[in-house]
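Chapter review. Work through the record for Arginine--tRNA ligase before attempting the end-of-chapter questions.
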Amino acid sequence: MDFKVQIADILYKQFNDLSREEIISMIEIPPSPDMGDYAFPCFRLAKLLRKAPPKIAEEAVAVIERPDFLKEIKSVSGYINFYIDKTKFASSIISNVLKSKEKYGTSNEGEGKNIVIDYSAPNIAKPFHVGHLRSTVIGGSIYRIYKHLGYNCIGVNHLGDWGTQFGKLIVAYKKWGSKEAVEQGGIKELMRIYVLFHEEAEKDPSLEDEARSWFTKMERGDEEALALWNWFKDISLEEFKKVYKLLGVEFDSYAGESFYNDKMDAIIEELDSKGLLKESDGAKIVDLEDVNMPPCLITKRDGSTLYATRDITAAIYRKNTYDFEKCIYVTALAQNLHFAQWFEVIKKMGYDWHDKLVHVPFGLVSMETGKLSTRKGNVVLLEELLKEAIDKTNQIINEKNPDLEDKETVAEQVGIGAVVFNDLSNNRIKDVVFSWDKVLNFDGETGPYVQYTHARACSVLRKANVDIEENIDYNVLTDPSSIEVIRLIGQFPERIKEAAEKLEPSFIARYIVDLAQAFNKFYHDNPILVEDEAVKKARLSLVYSVKTVLSSGLYLLGIKSPEKM
Ligand code: ARG
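Structure tokens for Arginine--tRNA ligase:
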């Protein structure tokens, strides 16, 4: 609950000529408390309602709704002043958290609705690098956020397990690889020969033709080609799953691109029968000139299909299988055109659900050394990055708290949490520059800072060891720093909804930083474990609420909340 928003809602019922947003932006915080906690100036309404501002304010005060949390509403020279009953306010929010516990912030608005979330989707035989981390953690968080709101979520890992890159890999394997080397080196060896292919192909372009013909063999069901492909796929998946385990991410389906191999013909026929296919230089395309986009390529001259062909087929398959309310695609910004094009093809096919397809783009991740690319081999493997995060965290813990129990687990939870939080803390469209000093700073606006604050709250509750579930004197919680914490706690359910609506986990990340900061101020201002039982219990109820919300917020981002650190 946010006072301002609540008050705006009351005013909106009275002044519906203004939008809710306009009303929110007009509400002021008066310079002194005797003029109320919030004030609404009626001057801008004078023209609209053809009445003097004091009259507008007076009339409104006589009729508007008075919820419990408002002690008084007064009209004073053209302003409507609102006085908050802080005790009631504290009571309504904290008692709600005490009652709902971990469920605080959940809702059932999504009951009976399916949301498909297509995320992570790394490319087989290429390594999982920090660029893929973003899709994985953003998608993973969107999954948890929607689930919290009662939706039935289906997480799909649309693996890049089909396409000409496998032709390249087969050529590279046959020329420069060996069974032993791949078995030993795993994905790193696959990456080495893949990079080598690109270097060699620059000198000898005929390698590209060779690669294409191996891919065509795959598409025609050639046994040798498919056996190699399957093997590369198994090796890659094994590696990916290690990373998912570290990140605590799971998928409901691993139907990747190859899953649609036997389903594309029917879709190509459908496109044809709907009169959408055009020949162009032997290729088949859907013309998108009318919407100012380059054509969407459906089959190449040699008859092979493309990324878009598989996405169109997959969308129709998913609609039939899951009857989704929304199908969300989390990929880098660079794929904007791809999604815009094939969404348009779905629309042209006459599917009215085209507007349920949502592309969720995100910015680039770079290390301080520069952009990442698989082809050039200038990549940081995600597993190595995560392991490094854990090692570095271990060192920090050894300095700060060498006697901590179960250090290994905590280092893993904090190290990985730090990397994940760093990726989610800014609007997703922004580029991220990865810097260890920033990511692991326990005092900055970071994952470890929030986790540390959570652990601090847990420690207070442990030391107090008091049952705080009933008879709380909420008068104790009306000082400014307590009220600020309570105000934020009250906003949590709303923030989750906003994050879902805008598909922005960063809203949650920023929110828990704000809450952690407000709590640390409260903690500094108010001694908790005091003699006076009533004061102690009331403050502990606030500590408990903070702990619960921080832990839920971290959970929604895919981050663990250790109780000690
Ligand atoms: N494999 C693709 C990549 O790494 C991402 C796939 C995203 N999902 C999709 N349905 N196109 O770029």
